[in-house]
Structure formats: structure tokens, C-alpha cells
Structure prediction request, 274 residues.
Amino acid sequence: MKKNVWLITGISSGLGKTLAESVLEHGDYVIGTLRKQSQVNNFNTKYSGKAHAVLLDITDHKATEKVIAAIPEIDVLVNNAGIGFVGAIEETSIAETRSVFEANFFGTLKMTQEVLPKMRAKRKGHIVQISSHGGIKAFAGFGIYNASKFALEGFSEAMAQEIGPLGIRTIIVEPGPFRTEFAAKGLPEAQKVIYDYADTAGAFRSKLKGVHGKQEGDPKKAAKAILDMVHSENTTLRLPLGKVPLTTIQMKLDSVQADLDHHTKTAENTVFKS
Prediction:
């Protein structure tokens, strides 16, 4: 049986690493991206013949073009690489915002655009976008990260309608808090701190730092869920992972429905009379 070729970005740690390991255990072939040459060398030594790592920073679009051009076939693209960020909207500089979007939006968009021609040629494939429950519902102190994931979900939802008729499936994965390095000491945060936001964005900063190592999500179980979805005949556009997303996403749906119900008459009265 032919092995599927998975291209997974950001496999140094967390969900990306665990997913790569699960895919290999399943018997498929992995091409993973890493940002340090030493990581590439270690990975290629450990998984020689079973997988291959390449050096890539997804914010380098020219490098992305070269990497994808050198890969003859890709069955599954997993856009996992990205960064977190905490800080109130007013606290966050434009430069800090751009850095988040370069990784979480533009880097992912470019990777997707480069891979799609290979999948269109075969009329099959899977694009797996690692988003977040924060790509559906925003949280004070997480707004710039939320915005980047909202943008990811927006283009992915439209893209699913464009590539679905061509035999290519889109899966948007929406994890809640998982026991990875996401909330570790290296989590980027706004350099400016404004006291007026201490009870909102500031509280979120403190909470996020305090949950490291205590998150409910098991990366191995998440990886299995993604693997099972890709190999299923009945995929859905979205895949929430964890108990927290079930609550937060439902809260967002309820909030939107309440606003719709409240403003139905107002909305209907803003059109020309026939």
C-alpha cells in the first residue's frame, strides 16, 4: 500500500512533534520543517529512510518556494508552525502585531498556496490548518493572537469551498489548552504594560503563565484525532480538540445567536421596500 507523504511545519516540539511521531507510527512518510540545522541533523539521523526534515522559517517566503519545489509529491499538508502572543490591544505595537501575522497568517498562507498546485494536479489531498478555539472566540489579552487565527480560519473556510470540488479537503483544527510548550517561559508578550488593563489583559497574562504543565489536553490523543480525521471518509471542516473548546466555541455561538435575535427587526428594516 502506498504511503502518504505528510508535510508538517514546526515539528520541533508540541503538537507538531507528536503528530509527526504518530504519522510515522501509522506507516506514512513525514517531511518536517525545523528552524535550526542541529535539529534537522538530529531528526534525519534518527529517522533515516522513514522521514526527512528540512530547514525552514515559514516567514521566509522565498525559502518556502524552494522547499516546496523540491518535494515531488505531498498528500497531506499540516500548517502547524506558528507563535503565541499575549497583551492588550493598546499595549501591542504594530511591529509585534506584524511578527505574529507573519508566522500565523502570511507564512501559513504562502505554504498553502505553494502546495495546492501539487494537490490540484492529482485532484486529491488534505490541507490541515492548526488553528485554535481562539480562532473562533476572542479573549482579553489574547486579541492579536486571536486576530491571526481568525484570519487563518477566514481564508481556510473560503478555500474549502474553492478546493473541495477539486477533491482536496480542508480541516481546521481548533485545540484548546494542550500540555505543550505553548505557554512556557518563551511565550511572546507585549513589551508595553498599561496598568488600566491589569484586571483584564493583565489577568489573562498571569493565568496563561500559570497553566503551563497543567493543561487538560493530551498531545498524543490530539495527534490520533487528526490522523483519524485525515484517514476518514467523512471529514468535517472543523475539528475541536479538548473539553475547553466545546465550552468556549458554544459560548461564541450563543453570543452571536443572541445578537441576531436581538437585532432581527432592525436588520430587516434597513433594506429597500419592494
Notes: The chain has a mean pLDDT of 93. The helical segments are 14-26, 37-46, 61-69, 94-122, 143-163, 201-210, 219-230, 243-268. Residues 94-122 form the longest helix (29 residues).
